[in-house]
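Message: I would value a second opinion on how I read folds in token form. Give me a protein, with the fold worked out from its sequence. Write it directly below this note and I will take it from there.
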Amino acid sequence: MSSLLTCVRKEIRLAEALRAFPTGSHGPVALVYTPSWCGFATLKDGALIDSAGRAIEGAYEVRVFDDRAELRWLNNPAANGTGTATLLTADAGTKCPPDWEPAERNTKMPDIGTNGLTYLLWGEHAAPPQPLRDGWSMLGLARIGALPVPLADVKTGQRVVLTAVEYIAADEFGSAFVFEERLTGLAIHKESGNG
């Protein structure tokens, strides 16, 4: 059984929220939404970096994750660049960062289990039109275009999955339900071709 800690902070700028992501993480991945683009990035030195090595500006929603934690940030359009951040972690001994509040859910019901799952990303290995940074691969299909992903060594015929964990609890009647899902990483799909 794994217990999920959920911490929340309102009226926080994205840069400050990113600094709350647990240190010691190896290669956090980010799913980033801007008004004109949606794609993957990496978190490096407190900045979101795209496949070309540029810092991403103007995000209105971000999910940064690795196998230890997920940080979600959603811009509040009426709050002059601030938004609400949520940090989810199952790392034993972790506490909420200073000035963050434990979510009410933490004390309401115990977790009774977890379930690992994957989401298959569209496309398979594709040759990039220009070289990508180290640690990145290109996915693509003619009808959807190209998608750079921060996962090294995706080979011809291989596909990529987004991995996640569902957290399960029971209500007062004993009925189990999924109360939260935490993204955990990217991986090569096990049933993909090997080139």
Q: What stands out?
A: Residues 14-19 form the longest helix (6 residues).
